[in-house]
Write a structure and sequence with these properties.
This protein has helices at residues 6-11, 44-64, 88-100, 105-146, 159-166, 176-183, and strands at residues 16-21, 26-31, 38-41. With 184 residues, it is mostly helical. It folds into two domains: 6-64, 2-Layer Sandwich (Double Stranded RNA Binding Domain); 88-183. The longest helix has 42 residues, at 105-146. The radius of gyration is 28 Å and the shape is flat. The N and C termini lie far apart (87 Å).
Length: 184
Amino acid sequence: MNLNSFESLNALNYPVRIEYDSEDSLFVADFLDLPGCSASGSTITEAFNRAQEAKAEWLRVALEQELPIPKPSKTGEYSGRILVRLPESLHSMLASRASINGTSLNQYIVHLLSAGIVGEEVSRKLEALTDHIQNIERQIASRFASGSFPGVQVRDVGLSSNFAQRGNQSLRRPPSSAIDAAIH
């Protein structure tokens, strides 16, 4: 195969990864071996088809400019079958739980593995969201401390300094002494 012709290069099976971007509500398809070659779409099919067009354009430009074109990496060929050795006690517990749930041992193990992967993804997203919220809280506390909220006046009842001192706890209820001072 002549790897210098566009047709032969475009016919190569470059691995593509498609992920959902919840922030933009789009599917994004990336060619792992072709730097910067990606496309998006509202459906997986649309993202994939647009990615194929992007791949063709990426290869065409690389050929015209005589840039190096990487060969496709090998995608793993997976049979869906693995052999796992585990302690007899764990095997027994898994078999019992599978029976209680009315499913086969294999299906139950696949369920547990899937739940673990999804749980990791959810945990990662929750952690990022928590970090984002804490950054917002710090920004608000800083703005209260500096008095930079236009049109909002913070009376000197100790609230501003309490917000600044407490950092990421800035949106929680102020100490009762500050509330009592504001009331009286």
